[in-house]
Amino acid sequence: MRNPDFEAMTAFAAIAERRSFAKAAVALGVSPSTLSQTIRELEEGLGVRLLNRTTRSVAPTEAGERLLDRLRPILSDFDAAIDTVRAFRDKPSGLIRLTVPPPAASFILAPNLQRFLAAYPDISLEISVDTALVDIVAERFDAGIRVGHRVERDMIAVRISDPVRHVVVAAPAYLALRPAPETPRDLLRHNAIRFRLPQGGFIPWRFHENGRSFEVTPEGSLIVNDPDVALHAAVDGVGVLYTVAPYTAAAIADGRLVPLLEPWQPVPADGFYLYYPSRRHVPAPLQALINFLRANLKNGHSDAG
Fold first, then answer.
1. For the whole model, what pTM was predicted?
2. Which of 88, 137, 231, 302 is the most exposed place for a label (fewest CB within 10 A)?
3. Residue range 6-90, CATH number
4. How many degrees, rounded to 5, is the angle at CA 217 between CA 212 and CA 221?
5. What three-state secondary structure class fits 133?
6. Where exactly are the structural domains of the chain?
7. What are the pLDDT digits (tens) for 114-151?
């Protein structure tokens, strides 16, 4: 004989607790006749009468009382377990693991961490700053942030920034030793600080002229894979740097760096997107982060796809 299923046991407990088929039926959302059939099959399967019933009353038998005593803690634990899961939906709590590139970590997340964590005290964030593309499913991240063209097409992507503008800068000390470039092609005669991508290539130096985009590939004595190192080297006069604008804003403002080639303003790249694997049952903490970024970032935009 196979053991009774959980639904049958739940039905029995509901009737025994309420001493009524009608009241139990309302609580469970089924008809009294369905409950009656369930209990009949349960008793037949066990070979034991669990409920004494007349037209006026229902009461557990001795066997039914013993079964009910054992079921109460089990059903209570079950309800508690379900409530725990629902809490993730109804009240954002738990850990969010993110993989993000350095610019997004510095200029999108860092300025907003305090406000987000204050608004959601039951959420914890783990942020992994990576220049390499990471398989968020294989590495068990909840989501990632990348520029749009680097997000896989099978991911759900939400735009959280305007297009990322690049600038060309150099320190006054560097420019004191050689004339500033007048066109992007003049960069071929300058010492460039180049950024190595995780795949092995370099970040391209892109410009815009007469409605067309083109690239310049300068050489240089310094290759890095960390934007802060590159910025420090540029401020120290090592060479000319091509990087995202937010990194240089403070140094330009206080005169440590000089913007170059502004008439050939580099073409803005894609904006940053937060991406994740599926639209179905997005964890409440992650949905809270998505909503927060879109609502609080001045340059936030709508879904990208």
1. 0.63
2. 302
3. 1.10.10.10
4. 150
5. coil
6. 6-90, 95-156+272-296, 166-264
7. 999 999 999 999 999 988 888 898 888 999 999 887 78
